[in-house]
Design goal:
By secondary structure, the chain is an alpha/beta fold. It is built from 9 helices and 14 strands.
């Protein structure tokens, strides 16, 4: 596939602002990101590039994006996954979870060793929301529980839940690449017997019920699909969500209340938020 490379000058943006920009570009279909000292390079398939959508992203939060400048260039058909992999580094979370690529050596001090083949997307453990959710899995007492990882990406949360001892884990993502990558990563981590990956959206949630649902998605999808999550929760079950920023917190909490759930915990990481709510 031929790609468009959009290069943003990032001198005036904080790290938190850059993460927000990356999240919004990811939601718009951008497949990979390379951060350099004063630049961010974002990649999207040539057929998917839309200048009006990009402009809409950049003007949606004026306080952050008013000073951004960028250029766009057409790139030849080369392996951008390989380029992105070369900048991938392991992540060690809470002194327990070591997330690494197959080409990295294991870390003996890690309680949980997750081997994740990096792709040009979120879900490698580097993003603040992924780390918020990994911490949530560690704290959620998933042993012997029925778990849903909604918007599973590369399958990190689902794989960790299996390694901790969940009874079964349903991992769902609408993207074909994420679905296939989750299957591969489940096999790589020897948890395929625990996991049930599936391609689709929240409309799949019609039969099974869960003790715990993890959903690391953007706020538009979280709000739209929250009634599906609420219906799929067991009584006293927990829905744990991230993927949105502080300015969206009130909207999410309003949707929680509207769907007869109760907020029991809120955690912040830079500009990002994790909400835990319960079905009572």
């Amino acid at each position: 596939m031929n790609y468009i490379q959009v290069t943003f000058k990032r001198a005036t943006l904080s790290e938190q602002d850059m993460e927000i920009l990356i999240a919004m570009l990811n939601d718009a279909g951008y497949e990979g990101f390379l951060e350099e000292r004063d630049l961010l390079r974002a990649y999207i398939g040539k057929d998917d590039y839309n200048e009006n959508i990009l402009q809409g992203i950049l003007t949606s939060i004026p306080d952050i994006f008013s000073a951004i400048t960028y250029t766009s260039d057409s790139l030849p058909n080369i392996n951008w996954n390989a380029t992105w992999e070369s900048s991938y580094a392991p992540v060690f979370i809470k002194n327990k979870v070591y997330i690494r690529a197959p080409f990295h050596k294991p870390f003996s001090k890690a309680e949980f060793d997750l081997v994740i083949q990096p792709q040009m997307s979120f879900g490698t453990g580097h993003h603040a929301t992924t780390q918020l959710m990994v911490n949530a899995v560690l704290d959620a007492e998933v042993q012997h529980k029925a778990v849903l990882d909604m918007g599973c990406g590369t399958g990190i949360l689902a794989i960790l839940a299996c390694k901790i001892g969940a009874a079964n884990v349903h991992a769902v993502d609408i993207e074909e690449g994420a679905y296939k990558n989750t299957i591969e990563n489940a096999e790589r981590n020897e948890v395929s017997s625990c996991m049930h990956p599936e391609k689709g959206d929240a409309s799949l949630l019609k039969k099974e019920v869960y003790d715990i649902i993890f959903a690391n998605i953007n706020r538009i999808i979280l709000i739209k699909d929250m009634f599906h999550y609420a219906d799929a929760l067991k009584y006293n079950g927990c829905l744990i969500m991230s993927g949105f920023i502080k300015q969206d917190e009130k909207l999410l909490k309003h949707a929680v209340k509207k769907n007869n759930l109760t907020v029991i915990d809120t955690v912040y990481e830079d500009e990002w938020v994790r909400i835990t709510c319960k079905k009572q």
